[in-house]
Amino acid sequence: MNTYALFVAPWDLQDVGTRELFAWARDQGLNTVFLASAYHAGWLLHPHAHSRKAFMVEDGTCYFHPNPKEYAATPLKPVVAGMARDRDWCAEACAVARELGLKIYFWTVCLHNSRLGLLHPDVTCRNVYGDSYPHALCPSHPAAREYVAALVRDQAKRYAPDGFLLEATRYHRGRTHGNLAGGVAGHHHERDGLPMPALEQHLLNLSFAPTDLAVAQDQGVDVTRVQRHVRDHLDRWFQTAPYREEGVATTLAAFQEACPDLSRYEQALHEQTEKLIEQIKSDTAVRDKLLIGDSHRRAFDVVLVGCYNQSQNRCEAILGDAAARCRPGQRLIAGLRLGFNPPPNTPAINSQRQGCDIARAVAQLDVAGIAWYFYGESPRSSLSWIKPMIEATQPRRLFAKVREIRVALIGAGVIGAVHLRAMREVPGVRLHVVADRDAAKAHALATGQEVEHVADSPEAVVRDPAINLVIVATPPNTHVRFACAVLQSGKHLLLEKPMGLHLDDADRILDAAQPSSQAVGVALVHRYDGNQFLARELIRHGAIGKVRLVRYRSGKNMYGDARFDGTGRNERSWLVDPAVAGGGILPSSSIHTLSVISFLLGYPRFLSVAGAVRCSHPRAFKGIEDDVSLLLQLEGGIGVVFEESWATDLDYELMIQGERGHLRFHGPAFNEVGLTGVCDGPTPARSRQYFEANRLVCRPHELDHLVPPYFAGLATDMIAACRGENCADLPGLLHARNMRAIIAAAVDAAAAQRETKIDWRSAPRVG
Question: Which residue from 391, 404, 400 is spatially nearest to 355, judged by alpha carbons?
């Protein structure tokens, strides 16, 4: 990641001062400015402006001094904004940016121009009834195309910016400038007297301007047929609205079945946008400039992906989808909003902590940078979060210069030994100290694993300034105490699952974290499997289409295991004590698979759960459930059928069903599975070696080379995170807390015998 950009408008420069604002931006760690050079109308609230709090932006004007000769071939001429007639803001901004070492891109609104559309209605988009949409110049019209090309060429010649952010190069998606439901509309004061369903809105949005019809007809599209179908459908809708007649299409897919030429017509319109951008790029004055756009057009070098008003999980999903659509060499910039609109009047980022979490997650993806939208609209407190957000994307400074990570272990049991063995294999790790309430056990483990010291107590470990990372591998009833102590000491933390006995415990741990300085991981290790990594990549790429259903079934009879005899002869007999373990199969085993499902699907929100939580075996211990059957609902309409047992031996089977195929993990146990599937969607190039036609077949352990397995993978990522490296796959506290929330809701749902909402946290609490 090398671009940290801020959207800025000339009225911001007028209010603050160009040098003052750009110097402030540089001090925050920003290195790029997106300056509005040609803009549409807007009625803006400026919460921290010195001169005015509300400002109506002139419609369809520019903030530079155009050269009239560049526009000789088009009747459309740029209009200079009143505030720019005696002051060339673009020239001033370029000079200051270069002096301060900032890159500057001209943020140019291209086809969204109501001023020119009202003056030249023949150059605008028109609906099927012939009504002009004056805010949308038509990209198939030669005059509009030449105007936009001249607008960019003129700026490139005159000011030589580093590049352009081109907004509104494609057809506007509707009669309205903004989103009325969300409270953000253009100054055009759009009003609908009836609700418009998605299909009817789409059809009314389509442009049937004469130049559009001519272009499509030249490509063999029966434009008369398309017009007739669209108009007939809308006429029937307007006659019966807000109700529909029986038998009419209700979805775009159904409408396209009756009118196949509609898809070809829309494709012809999209190609006009491609040609417009290619025309801009081909100009000699623009050819060496970086072009940033808001869509995946071929000629754009970088795509700005709007992640406005989205949770961390949604940001990751949106950017993952965008990355899958990029052409070779095309990069992404994530757009984050700091202000409070829309959907209705909600904050995009509501705390510094949430902002840092989102920025850190974005940095771990394959993106070129982050752009913050935008200075004038953002509350002053939100602007103060930019610097910590930038720091969150960079290597953590606390131990950035430490070549060797000194590790301490609290809890010298079986799992603690597993963690130490995994850590021993990671270069640059020093096993410094181990502590356990059983001193003999601690000494035995330290000798066997060549640990340097044995501590008198866990508290001594926390106080030791030589330690960088503490592993807490004790029973769940101690997790809150030890984890919070480590977090408060400022050390990095690797915590065994689950996060305590109750959801409140998990919230206490999460709230104790210091995201700006600490790496924190939770030992949900089942994701560290080559099958999981390939499957996740296929799902992100769209290989099985939109996921609709997940089915999971697995079982292992635990009642022949010494840990389940309840006598305490085995050091892990605490597993059958609910006061120590917090439950049975759910917090011990099921939490791993729930985490895997979340990981594979891109961390969607789990909404609700229903089902049964049972103590089914005759030898079952009270409060230690050994069999669960759950139905979970996830955002995006995804359903999960989840069955797991400690009372019956069952093969491991996890099936993910999408609209274009499926993926199936199957084997005798979670660590002995193969991956098969049918993928009718696009597949990443590096995965095709595992396919025969559209069929995927991977035998057990065939994909082990993709990631160090289980605890080895966790240790590798944990140490990398301690060194400040990006580790997108490390299971974090928020994720582990939400897995604990699913378990709590499942227990409540079973007790109440009804569906229960899951107490999901998309970000740490404010305050």
Answer: 391
Q: At what angle do helices 312-325 and 530-541 cross, to 10 degrees?
A: 70
Q: What is the full DSSP assignment across 444-512?
A: HHHHHHT-SEE-S-HHHHHH-TT-SEEEE-S-GGGHHHHHHHHHHHT-EEEEPSSSSSSHHHHHHHHHH
H/E stretch holding 328 reads none
Joined tokens for residue 501: 């006995």
* Contact criterion met (CB below 8 Å) for 733 and 746: no
Local confidence band at 347 (pLDDT 50, 70, 90 cut-offs): low
Average pLDDT, the chain: 89
Cα four-point dihedral sign 8, 11, 16, 20: positive
- Name the pLDDT band for 674 (thresholds 50, 70, 90): very high
Q: What is the C-alpha separation between 435 and 485, in angstroms, rounded?
A: 15
Lowest mean pLDDT among 14-18, 28-32, 312-316: 312-316
Binned at pLDDT 50, 70 and 90, residue 45 comes out as: confident
Question: What is the per-residue pLDDT for 472?
Answer: 96
CA atoms of 271 and 264, how far apart (whole Å) = 11
341 band by pLDDT with thresholds 50, 70 and 90: low
Q: What angle do CA 760, 765, 767 make, to 5 degrees?
A: 170
Domains of the chain plus CATH, in order, are 3-191+288-300 (no CATH), 405-524 (3.40.50.720), 526-757 (3.30.360.10)
CA distance 759 to 747: 13
Residue 339: closest CA among 348, 330, 331, 327: 348
